[in-house]
Amino acid sequence: MKTPGTRKPEEELPNTKPSRRNLIALSASVAAAGLTTLAACNTKPAETAPSMLGTAPSKYGNRSPHEAAARSLPPESKTPSTGASRTPLQDTYGIITPSSLHFERHHSGVPDIDPAKHELLIHGLVEQPLVYSLDDLKRFPAQSRVHFVECSGNGRSEYSGNLAPDPQASHGLASCSEWTGVPVKLLLAEAKLKPEAKWLIAEGGDACKLTRSIPLAKLLDDAMIVYGQNGEPIRPEQGYPMRLLLPGWEGNTNIKWLRRLNLADGPAMTTHETAFYTDLLPDGKARQFSFENEAKSVITRPAGGQKIAAGPGMHDITGLAWSGRGKITRVEISTDGGRIWKDAELQMAGFAKAFTRFRMPWIWDGSATSIQSRATDETGYLQPAAEEMLAVRGRNFGYHNNQIKTWFVRADGTVSHVEQGA
């Protein structure tokens, strides 16, 4: 009878006496274990392993190499310095456009200006003509404000029925930044305006010396001369070292590389306010000095060029709205071609003449449909439908297109600017 926990001598252990066969087997086991350990040591850890050392600090930050959002460039031409690049609105979050993605519109390229030599002249119908350097401007109490800038030709092709395929192509000549600078009215007070001064002629420092006439009332309201954008000096393509900012007004009046402000008793009737940037009406007359950009919105996700890959179910509709007349107070979304409109949630809606982010949850049933947005600003102005604009302005109208934009969602989840079968 065995006592628990005991065993016979012959059951103790296997034979451990040394032999040639046992030594060879043991050597082979040790060698195999060693090779396995060595292979593990030589294997490169996964790139996401926390033990991997990262890059060292840098003087100026870069985005991740995995991100590829970029401005779109115009086709190659014989005059590459005249053209525009567009903001990828569908790739942005919130309301602030990264400075590197802010749209461009140039008439003679981007000049290379030395800020230490650049000067701003204020003269004309003033008692005291003045010259300011960049350092002089920075001595004035600075203000920072969030405002959009939009080219008046944004969405121009859609007047003629040439619908753009994605938000970048349809609405990408608009961007929103935090701008820092000095109110123009402070500088005009220093110069002491004469009573007959009613207009200001602003001139840029680019090769074409782009010039626009601005009513004095706007300059005494919310106009600024800015030198900062999103917490750093404005980029060269945005007017470095200083530009005129006229919140809510068409981008062409926001003179970049600002070098001269000439006070006058009337407009100068320059090339860019007579031959260009006027609105041809159906009766043959042209509307001039149509400065304000009216209420506008666009859905950026889901939108043309994208696909609802997850299929039917809950999805987030989001986009941007803005108005040159003030704050956005309401955005409505339709998911059935404009028959029923529902209120979207507004985010960051406290800024006047700035982007407002909107969003609305949507349960997609998987069937083909169309989605739209329309904005209302604090003056009560409601963004019009395309047919309403066409009835008033006709096909020859080239600027200030703020009609409702439609995206067509197909049953396979792809989103397009044209209806399937059209």
Structure report:
The chain is α+β, with helices and mostly antiparallel strands and 422 residues long. The protein folds into two domains: 83-287, Oxidoreductase, molybdopterin-binding domain (Sulfite Oxidase, Chain A, domain 2, Alpha-Beta Complex), CATH 3.90.420; 296-416, Sandwich (Immunoglobulin-like). Helices cover 12% and strands 28% of the residues. The chain has six helices and 23 strands. The strands form six sheets. A five-stranded mixed β-sheet has the order 4-3-12-7-8. A hairpin with a 5-residue loop joins β3 (119-124) and β4. It is globular and about 70 Å long.
Low-confidence stretches: 1-16
Proportion of residues in β-strands: 25-35%
Q: What number of structural domains do the residues give?
A: 2
Helix content: 10-25%
User: Rg, please?
Assistant: 32 Å
CATH architecture group name of the largest domain = Alpha-Beta Complex
Major β-sheet annotation: 5 strands, mixed
Number of strands: 23
Shape: globular
Rounded average pLDDT: 90
- The structure class reads alpha+beta
Per DSSP, the total helix count is: 6
CATH topology group of the largest domain: Sulfite Oxidase, Chain A, domain 2
